[in-house]
Amino acid sequence: MNEWGCAATKALIDSVDQGCHDLEWQGFAVRLIKQPWGELLISLHGAQVLHFRPASEHPVLWLTNRPKPFPGAIRGGVPLCWPWFGDHPSDESLPAHGVARTGKWRLVSEQLTESGGCWQMIPEETLWPDLTLSLRFSVGGDGLLISLTTANIGSQAVSVTQALHSYLSISARDSISIEGLDGCAYLDKLQALAQFDLEGPVDVTQEIDRIFKHAQSVLLVDHGWQRTLRIGKRFSGSTVVWNPGRSARGMVDVGLDQVDSFVCIEAANTAFVDPVVLPGGESVCLETQFSIEPYLR
Known about the structure:
This protein is mainly β. It has 1 helix and 22 strands. 3% of the residues lie in helices and 45% in strands. The two termini are 19 Å apart.
């Protein structure tokens, strides 16, 4: 059973006193916030929240123990899939899940409070023509809110797909249940995007890659940790549930030794369900929120 999370992350956090620290994690520049309310670890590479743990809780986010070397994409936390989710629709030479998660970002504001704080990041340079991007995240109580704002500064409409690709830390895949998707239609990426209606529980003990037509909150009930995590969202009609199962054997940054420690439940706008067509001069904000609630037995 996964007891804590990434050992390298725990060692880094344990090595410093409370405060805000600019450090290096596995070759990546990071900002570590360690406060009485908990811990937050942010990567400047990809503007990625790598770790969030409220005080006296298990980590909310899972992070690999074996990341690919810099400047590769980091597996875990909440990668930003933007301005396309999955493969590029017309150019196979472009990276999967877009350019935001491997871009250079900078922290432009940081505000701490007794119970949390607020941070804002922007790319160091333009990531995609005619589009600007900013990321805001805030911590309060036992919750984390992430907001990704896209603005079209051009004159022509632009199509965008995107996701906040959340890797959620769990005790074990056979010790959790996912509530809130009952009866929803979904597209199964393991069956050539065939559509089904969910009947019964979501089974993540085997490989799963489904896009649910779903715009509401989901509850991740972890019976091993006796914890309920609410995954809320805004401006998202697609909820993606993913775990590679035995396919993790061929993934150097997951492997069969780590695959049982996470499940992805993602707020998204996908090409198959709810792509965003953003007119010139307009903006859109994709949000997801993680909050710990009383345990549902």
